[in-house]
Amino acid sequence: MEKRIFITQKMIDQYGVLNGDNDIIHYDIDYARQRGYKDTLAHGPMVMGYAAELAARKYGDAWHRRGEIEVKFVAPTYPNEELVVSIDDEGNVVAKAGETINVVGSARLR
């Protein structure tokens, strides 16, 4: 199962308002570039949320009572990229932007 999301700066901005993360690296491209990134960064929990959404679809109502997800952020997710998040039959999670793997992990029921 997979979900495709086109990440925009507006989405990143709105997520920052919701979760209170005001780190400038999410909002200021010049600051992000000074730190070696090509653009601002999407929030990690925002990206993980898409994986959790797929896990909820996979496991149904049991996910809300017994679900757990563990991920590793292996590359940044930038605005203006299409992110493809997938979960396989064993609960393995991968998020990719183009050929770049951004997130790996697993979702399971306890």
**Main β sheet profile:** 5 strands, antiparallel
CATH class membership = Alpha Beta
Number of strands: 5
The end-to-end distance, rounded to whole angstroms, is 21 Å
| Count of discrete domains | 1
- Strand-residue fraction? 25-35%
Mean pLDDT comes to: 96
CATH level-4 homologous superfamily: Hotdog Thioesterase
Shape: elongated
Q: Which structural class do you get from the secondary structure elements?
A: alpha+beta
As laid out across the biggest beta sheet, the strand order is 1-3-4-5-2
| Secondary-structure element series | EHHHHEEEE
Oligomer type? single chain
The residue fraction in helices comes out at 25-40%
Q: What is the second-level CATH architecture?
A: Roll
Task: Kindly identify the CATH topology.
Answer: Thiol Ester Dehydrase, Chain A
- Poorly predicted segments: none
Radius of gyration: 14 Å
Description:
By secondary structure, the protein is an alpha+beta fold. It has one domain (2-109): Hotdog Thioesterase (Thiol Ester Dehydrase, Chain A). 35% of the residues lie in helices and 33% in strands. The protein has 4 helices and 5 strands; from the N terminus they run E-H-H-H-H-E-E-E-E. A 5-stranded antiparallel β-sheet has the order 1-3-4-5-2. It is elongated. 24% of the residues are buried. The mean pLDDT is 96.
List keywords for this structure.
alpha+beta; Thiol Ester Dehydrase, Chain A; five-stranded antiparallel β-sheet; 4 helices
Architecture blueprint of SSEs:
Layout: E1 2-7, H1 9-19, H2 29-34, H3 44-59, H4 62-66, E2 67-73, E3 81-87, E4 92-97, E5 100-109
Antiparallel strand pairs: 1-3, 2-5, 3-4, 4-5
